[in-house]
Specification:
With 302 residues, this protein is α+β, with helices and mostly antiparallel strands. It has 2 domains: 2-137, Ribosomal Protein S5, domain 2 (2-Layer Sandwich); 153-288, GHMP kinase, C-terminal domain (Alpha-Beta Plaits, 2-Layer Sandwich), CATH 3.30.70.890. 44% of the residues lie in helices and 20% in strands. The protein is built from 11 helices and 11 strands. It has helices spanning 37-42, 49-58, 80-96, 102-117, 127-131, 153-157, 171-183, 187-208, 212-227, 236-248, 273-282; strands at residues 2-3, 9-15, 21-25, 30-34, 64-70, 134-140, 143-148, 160-164, 250-255, 263-268, 286-288. β9 (250-255) and β10 (263-268) form a beta hairpin. It is globular.
Length: 302
Amino acid sequence: MNFAINRYASCVLETRPDSRIVLESRDLAGREAFDSLQALRQAGRYRLPLAAYLIRFFGPRAGLELHTDSESPAGGGIAGSSTLIIAIASVLNRLTGAGYGLEQLREICQNIEAQIIRVPTGSQDYYPAMYGGVNAVELGPAGVLRKAIPVDLEDFNQRIVLAYTGSPRVSAINNWEVMKAHLDGDRKVHRNFDCIAAIAQAMRRALERGDWSEAGRLLREEWAHRRRNHPGISTPLIDRLVQLARRAGALGAKACGAGGGGCVFFLVERGAAPRVAAAIERAGAEVLPVRVAERGVEVRSD
């Protein structure tokens, strides 16, 4: 289960009359240039690998300038890189006329991101950027299926508080340690995963009937199980934020992504968001104003 927030990634592409390829990331303050597509493909390393790998894959025939930006804090655990890679892939898909559907783009992006970080990647992080709204992501024998969950978004928006701890998490470390424990047959991790899967199913039913009290209880239960998978998933600051927010009116909370830092999501009682936000800020974290983004990726051309 996940939902899209209005922290956007953007990509502006302009063609050039020559073969030169120029890449710029405004949020990372990074820039690199290549004399041609062949020069890009021959380069051993990249300052901006997401854009470079995608250009290498799509193989545009013309030179271009690609400018990217992201409103997500680096290492926040809120799928900032997945959102950006969907944006870049979508605009290159349009430019080259490759004709890939949205689900095909998700698979391409997932595989390319795995090549870059050199560990397996999941599919779930791409869906908020693809479709927006509130999503159930079904991982079944026939593949990945996304279904929209009908939620009263105006009500939901008043129940969301998102905090940034100021400490970027390193997802590959926590994810690999948990995955390794699962592959090694760690019974505790297996039980936790079984419980988390059951909680996700129950959370879907709670959201479909608008039962926020049950959703909060399930969120608390999920976080308790997730924390047991690896000691690096939580931090003293995250634990303190969860405790303070609970006293101020939070129904439940969990670290976003792999944990270990980054962002923490709080589901709060209606009307409690200002109190919860104030408690979080007093504890030293930054509250990020967000709402549910109702639409997914859009490509516009001039």
